[in-house]
Amino acid sequence: MSTTAIPVLKLENVKKRFGSFSAINGISETFMPGELICAIGPNGAGKSTLLNMICGTLPVSEGRILFADKVINGLAPEKIAALGIARKFQVPSVFESLSVAENLMLAGGSAMHDGKLEALIDKVHLRAERNVRGADLPHGRKQWLEIGMALAMKPKVLLLDEPTAGLSVDETRDTARFLRQLRGQVTVIVIEHDMAFVRELDARTIVLHHGAVIASGSFEDIESNETVRDVYLGRH
Ligand SMILES: Nc1ncnc2c1ncn2[C@@H]1O[C@H](COP(=O)(O)OP(=O)(O)OP(=O)(O)O)[C@@H](O)[C@H]1O
Ligand SMILES: [Mg+2]
Prior knowledge:
Blueprint: E1 9-18, E2 21-31, E3 36-40, H1 47-54, E4 62-67, E5 70-71, H2 77-83, E6 85-88, H3 100-108, H4 114-123, H5 139-152, E7 157-161, H6 169-180, E8 187-191, H7 195-201, E9 204-209, E10 212-217, H8 219-223, H9 226-231
Parallel strand pairs: 3-8, 3-9, 6-7, 7-8
Antiparallel strand pairs: 1-2, 1-4, 4-5, 9-10
Helix pairs in contact: 3-4, 3-5, 6-7
The structure holds adenosine-5'-triphosphate and magnesium ion (MG).
């Protein structure tokens, strides 16, 4: 974690309307360098919409998004990515004919020398699959490779929308464990539904409901929060 307390990402009263429907109703949040954050909330709460506005694939209706001290809303998604905000989409998109190592090297470009590559392979738990082609990877390992490819670009902020969709119980737990180990290195905002994952992640957790943040705190705080129980955890 950086010792200078300058946020890497800031949302200032961010709103999103789709026609007359208000999907995000004014969210203000601050994210620190190296911080690990989990966003949860019922279906339709606005989680993906929020990530889409941060990475620029959806325009902001009102408010500001700042990366370091620069207002980034209104910039093209490629510009935002180039500034250091990486995003992993729900559907894996790896190069099928290339091995895990080759995919990571390609994503990292010239900065990806041998030592870095091997460290990254270990970071995303793909040591045993190092030389396996993308096409031959099971779904869960493809998800990890995609996270590795995003990390290879050395982002300041990594946005993950439901990275454990379709993963086994063991893979879900392992994903939480390696994301936890990224703490202090890169700011990670992860959207998840799986409560076992959220518990294992042990991160600051933000709860969205009807486009607003209704609670924020440790997983224990969230778990014991009455409002959260009513709107979300109570469903399970
Ligand atoms: N392009 C769009 N046009 C109109 N309405 C949209 C659009 N995208 C999202 N919405 C609406 O905005 C609300 C928030 O959607 P969003 O996808 O952000 O929810 P979510 O929290 O990611 O839900 P889930 O857990 O199901 O992924 C929903 O009511 C959704 O129907
Ligand atoms: Mg979503």
